[in-house]
């Protein structure tokens, strides 16, 4: 995550005399769109720089050594590069005494858009070759290296008699690390990704192996208070290399129930009844017609499709299914033979991810599940206003909240991203209990309590990453 760097950069920008009169929101827009009519050329140049070197990680010892080189503890000679690679590395980074060079991981897949401020001329880590998974014997957990694809983790867990309880609300080809430094929306009906994280194996800004949380302890305690508080900012305080995850036992049987609705209000009423009932399901996902066409192009899309995953002993599934049918009254048809987006062969899953990924996503709207129809209607109206067809992917929580991801069929340029983000932000404000969460929305937040928390986190980062290596704060 790069929120602290973006926030500090904007705070510093407001202190520049030539820009101090700009309204904060106008400044954020100019920075995001790289508007050279408003910003000095030097600022536009800083924001346009990309990491100078990409390093493909195969072992965490390589990461430790690289961090120690960048923080000045080791010489570039210690990297053991060939003469040609050695000179390329030093030339591209402009290695010199006293020069700060940052390091940042590269997401495997990005749902929305990158952070406002890039890692200027630093090192980018590619973890695609660092993806093994350990399954400690006798426990329902896994230790996954951050480059492990979610699909691989899921298949390997089943082969080891376990199951991964969370799935991505939007099925892109995510790695586990994308939930830490990207925006992978992993979740289940019972909780978000963080609920299943036991601990992080990390590398500190001084190249030391560190542990946040625990690999095996499952009780709550101070270690979990820290890991869950730090999880959204983990890659800015440490460099995660592996994640200890809580799994569940492989279910004896599973059913995917598909309900089709013509009326969004009836769908919302059914989902509210489900969340109030206390009935347990593995996950419940909603797709409107546009999203369903991308997920299942061979089937005619209905206005709304709800898929519910049931898991457990075969003997009890029929009774549970009847109970859920009664709660979800109002559907026009039901099927039990429609495939879900997750149990596909690797190649088929990647094709689905490619289709879904063509749309522009701007962030997440969290709202009471009873507001789903209202949210969908307002998003469709926004799409008509800007000439971009809107669609919706959503997952339901047992707490009565829906996590919705609007998607738009439009070119992915920065002005459009900003325009649609503002539109979704305005819509969220009109729905009681709703909030829009995105990389831009965090920067728009000007609440005094939020600013205070950001100040505390920034001070904490300066202490933990005193070496200024892990996505260091950048001054204009």
Strand content: 15-25%
Mean pLDDT: 90
Main sheet record: 9 strands, antiparallel
- Global Rg: 23 Å
Known CATH architecture of the largest domain: 2-Layer Sandwich
Parts with pLDDT < 50 across at least 5 consecutive residues? none
Class based on secondary structure composition and strand pairing: alpha+beta
Number of separate helices = 17
Q: Can you identify the CATH class of the largest domain?
A: Alpha Beta
CATH topology-level name of the largest domain: Uridine Diphospho-n-acetylenolpyruvylglucosamine Reductase, domain 3
Task: Describe the SSE topology.
Layout: H1 3-13, H2 24-33, H3 41-48, E1 53-56, H4 60-70, H5 83-93, E2 103-105, E3 123-126, E4 133-134, E5 141-145, H6 150-159, E6 162-163, E7 167-168, H7 178-181, E8 186-187, E9 197-203, E10 209-213, H8 222-230, H9 234-237, E11 239-246, E12 248-249, E13 253-261, H10 264-277, E14 283-288, H11 289-295, E15 304-312, H12 314-327, E16 333-335, H13 346-357, E17 360-361, E18 364-368, H14 372-386, E19 389-396, E20 401-409, H15 414-429, E21 435-437, H16 439-444, H17 448-464
Parallel strand pairs: 1-3, 2-3
Antiparallel strand pairs: 4-5, 5-11, 6-12, 7-8, 9-10, 9-11, 13-15, 13-16, 14-15, 14-19, 17-20, 18-20, 18-21, 19-20
Helix pairs in contact: 10-14, 14-15
């Amino acid at each position: 995550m790069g929120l602290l760097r973006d926030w500090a950069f904007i705070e510093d920008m407001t202190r520049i005399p030539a820009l101090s009169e700009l309204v904060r929101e106008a400044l954020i827009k100019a920075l995001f769109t790289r508007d050279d009519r408003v910003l000095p050329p030097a600022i536009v140049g800083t924001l346009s720089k990309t990491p100078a070197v990409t390093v493909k990680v195969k072992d965490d010892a390589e990461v430790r050594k690289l961090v120690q080189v960048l923080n000045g503890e080791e010489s570039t000679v210690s990297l053991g590069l060939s003469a040609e690679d050695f000179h390329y590395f030093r030339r591209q980074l402009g290695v010199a005494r006293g020069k700060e060079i940052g390091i940042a991981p590269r997401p495997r897949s990005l749902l929305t858009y990158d952070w406002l401020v890039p890692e200027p001329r630093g090192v980018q880590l590619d973890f695609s070759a660092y993806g093994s998974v350990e399954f400690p014997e006798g426990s329902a957990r896994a230790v996954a290296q951050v480059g492990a694809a979610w699909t691989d983790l899921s298949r390997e867990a089943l082969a080891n008699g376990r199951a991964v309880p969370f799935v991505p609300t939007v099925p892109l080809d995510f790695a586990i690390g994308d939930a830490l430094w990207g925006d992978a929306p992993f979740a289940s009906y019972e909780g978000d990704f963080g609920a299943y994280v036991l601990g992080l194996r990390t590398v500190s800004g001084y190249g030391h192996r560190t542990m946040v949380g625990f690999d095996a302890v499952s009780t709550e305690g101070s270690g979990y208070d820290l890991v869950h508080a730090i999880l959204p900012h983990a890659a800015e305080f440490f460099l995660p290399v592996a994640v200890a995850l809580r799994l569940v036992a492989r279910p004896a049987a599973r059913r995917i129930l598909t309900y089709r609705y013509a009326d969004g209000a009836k769908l919302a009423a059914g989902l509210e009844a489900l969340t109030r009932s206390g009935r347990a399901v593995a996950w419940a996902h909603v797709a409107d017609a546009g999203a369903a066409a991308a997920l299942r192009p061979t089937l005619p899309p209905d206005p709304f499709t709800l898929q519910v995953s049931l898991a457990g002993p075969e003997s009890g599934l029929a009774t549970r299914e009847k109970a859920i049918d009664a709660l979800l009254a109002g559907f026009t048809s039901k099927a039990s033979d429609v495939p879900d987006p997750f149990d596909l062969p690797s190649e088929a899953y990647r094709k689905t991810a490619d289709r879904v990924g063509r749309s522009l996503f701007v962030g997440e709207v969290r709202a009471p599940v009873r507001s789903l129809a209202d949210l969908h209607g307002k998003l469709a109206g926004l799409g008509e206003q800007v000439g971009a067809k809107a669609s919706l992917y959503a997952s339901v929580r047992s707490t009565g909240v829906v996590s919705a991801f609007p998607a738009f069929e439009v070119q992915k340029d920065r002005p459009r991203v900003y325009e649609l983000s503002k539109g979704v932000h305005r819509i969220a404000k009109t729905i009681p209990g709703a909030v829009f969460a995105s990389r831009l929305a965090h920067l728009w937040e000007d609440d005094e309590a939020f600013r205070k928390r950001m100040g505390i986190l920034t001070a904490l980062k300066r202490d933990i990453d005193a070496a200024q290596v892990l996505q260091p704060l950048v001054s204009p």
